[in-house]
Amino acid sequence: MLETLPFDPADYLDSEEGFEAYLADARLDGAVALSRAVEVVARARALIASVSNAPTRNVAEPAAPRFSPD
After folding, report:
1. pTM of the model
2. What are phi and psi of 41, to 5 degrees?
3. Cα gap 46→43, rounded to integer Å
4. pLDDT for 6-59, tens place per residue?
5. How far is CA 53 from CA 16, 22, 25, 56, 69, in A?
6. 32, 22 in Cβ contact below 8 A?
7. Which of 38, 44, 60, 62 has the fewest beta carbons under 10 Å from its own?
8. Are 44 and 26 contacting, i.e. CB atoms less than 8 angstroms apart?
9. Which of 48, 49, 27, 47 is nearest to 38 (CA)?
10. Are 44 and 19 in contact (CB under 8 A)?
11. Rounded Cα–Cα distance for residues 37 and 16 (Å)
């Protein structure tokens, strides 16, 4: 049996232009669709913020080995 995962458009919105287009399209479908689209855009912005605030390290430099005393 094929397993599927739920689709979340917030995972694919990554720019202000994308947000604007998504909201404009939802507005044509009515108030309920626009309300849902606003929630999706808010989630997308939160995802972008969480990724941009995540600590990073230079992957070209290997991490220092950590040894624990036995």
Report:
1. 0.70
2. -65, -40
3. 5
4. 999 999 999 999 999 999 999 999 999 999 999 999 999 999 998 887 776 555
5. 18, 25, 30, 9, 33
6. no
7. 60
8. no
9. 27
10. yes
11. 14
Looking up tokens 């080995």 gives: 65
What is the amino acid identity at position 57?
R
Look up residue 10 and give its two tokens: 């917030």
The amino acid that residue 48 corresponds to is I
Using alpha carbons only, what angle is made at residue 39 by residues 11 and 4, rounded to the nearest 5 degrees?
40
Looking up tokens 């989630």 gives 43
What residue has token string 């919105």?
A: 13
